[in-house]
C-alpha cells in the first residue's frame, strides 16, 4: 500500500481534475502518482420488450464514435444522489423515463488512472419523450437495440466502451437481460 504524503491539483477544468500525490512506496522510497479525479457517475440500462437503449456519440480522445449505455455525471456531481443522476442521464440522452429503478452494481472504469466509480441501474417500465441533450451532446444518437445484438456487440468488440461491455455482460450473467 502507498502512503500519501501530500496531494496537489496539477490541472482542473469543468470536466476533469488532474491530481498528483507525493507517495511513499512500500520499500520506503518516494515517488509521484498522478491520476484523474472525477465525480461518481451513473449508468442506466433501460430495458423493455427485449430491447436495451444505447447511445452513439463522438469520443474525441479516440477520434471516433462509440456505442455505449446511457451514462454520465449529472449537473451537481456528487451532490446529487446517484440514482437521480441515472434518471437525469437517461432522460437527457434518450428521452426515456422509467417507472422502476434498481441498483445493480458499482464499477470502476480505470482504477489505476481515474479516481471515479459508476453505479449501474436497471430501468424498466419505460416511456419515451423528447431528448434533453447538453451542448456537448448535440451529435448523440439514441436508439433501442435488441438485447441479443447488444450482448453480441459487447462480446465481439463492436461496443468498444469497457464500462458498457462489462455492464452488459454482468446483466446477462445475472439473468437480467
Automatic annotation (TrEMBL):
What Gene Ontology terms for biological process does this UniProt record contain? nucleoside phosphate metabolic process; ribose phosphate metabolic process
Q: What are the protein's UniProt keywords?
A: Hydrolase
Which domain of life does the protein's organism represent?
Bacteria
Enumerate the cofactors the protein uses.
Answer: Mg(2+)
UniProt entry tagged with the keyword Transmembrane: no
Q: Which chemical reaction does it catalyze?
A: GDP-alpha-D-mannose + H2O = alpha-D-mannose 1-phosphate + GMP + 2 H(+)
Signal sequence coordinates: none
Show where the Nudix hydrolase domain sits. 27-167
Q: Name one GO molecular function term.
A: hydrolase activity
Q: Its family?
A: Belongs to the Nudix hydrolase family. NudK subfamily.
- What name is this protein filed under? GDP-mannose pyrophosphatase
Amino acid at each position: 500500500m502507498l502512503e500519501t504524503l501530500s496531494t496537489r491539483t496539477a490541472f482542473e477544468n469543468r470536466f476533469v481534475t488532474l491530481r498528483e500525490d507525493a507517495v511513499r512506496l512500500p520499500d520506503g522510497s518516494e515517488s509521484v502518482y498522478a491520476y484523474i479525479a472525477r465525480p461518481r457517475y451513473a449508468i442506466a440500462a433501460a430495458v423493455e420488450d427485449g430491447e436495451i437503449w444505447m447511445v452513439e456519440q463522438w469520443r474525441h480522445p479516440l477520434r471516433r464514435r462509440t456505442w455505449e449505455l446511457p451514462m454520465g455525471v449529472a449537473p451537481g456531481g456528487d451532490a446529487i444522489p446517484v440514482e437521480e443522476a441515472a434518471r437525469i442521464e437517461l432522460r437527457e440522452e434518450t428521452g426515456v423515463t422509467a417507472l422502476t429503478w434498481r441498483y445493480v452494481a458499482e464499477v470502476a472504469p480505470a482504477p489505476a488512472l481515474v479516481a471515479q466509480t459508476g453505479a449501474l441501474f436497471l430501468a424498466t417500465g419505460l416511456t419515451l419523450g423528447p431528448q434533453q441533450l447538453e451542448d456537448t451532446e448535440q451529435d448523440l444518437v439514441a436508439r433501442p437495440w435488441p438485447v441479443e445484438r447488444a450482448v453480441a456487440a459487447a462480446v465481439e468488440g463492436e461496443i468498444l466502451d469497457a464500462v458498457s461491455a462489462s455492464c452488459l455482460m454482468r446483466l446477462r450473467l445475472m439473468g437480467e437481460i
